[in-house]
Amino acid sequence: MNERQNLFxxxxxxFVKQINMVELDNFVxxxxxxxxxxxxxxxxxxxxxxxxxxxxxxxxYAIDNRCPHMGCAFSGGTLDGTKIVCPCHDWRxxxxxxxxxxxxxxxxxxxxxxxxxxxxxxxVDEEDE
Length: 129
Description:
Blueprint: H1 3-23, E1 27-32, E2 40-46, E3 49-56, E4 59-64, E5 78-80, E6 83-85, E7 92-94, E8 99-100, E9 103-107, E10 113-116, E11 119-123
Antiparallel strand pairs: 1-11, 2-3, 3-4, 5-6, 6-7, 8-9, 10-11
């Protein structure tokens, strides 16, 4: 292999790494997937934000830990199927839609997430911080 070929290989490797970094743009690795058990909630601080990870009915949800009603911590609440119940006033929010059951216009703040390489990644945009 000559020097020119080596240079192209290095450039290709750098290019591939940059593409992968763009792909993960604003996603933060937060937890190994196996650490979030079915029917559980895990409170994390991600870039200064209180984010609650939930695994319920085989689905993962990433929501702001603060209830949109009065800011109470959902982490002290309970799960009822795919609903999370706020511990302060028993308000129930659907995890699938984010909607409060009595007023659908009031919604949870949820975060995009993905699983990659056995880890859960949560997307936190700059305006969220």
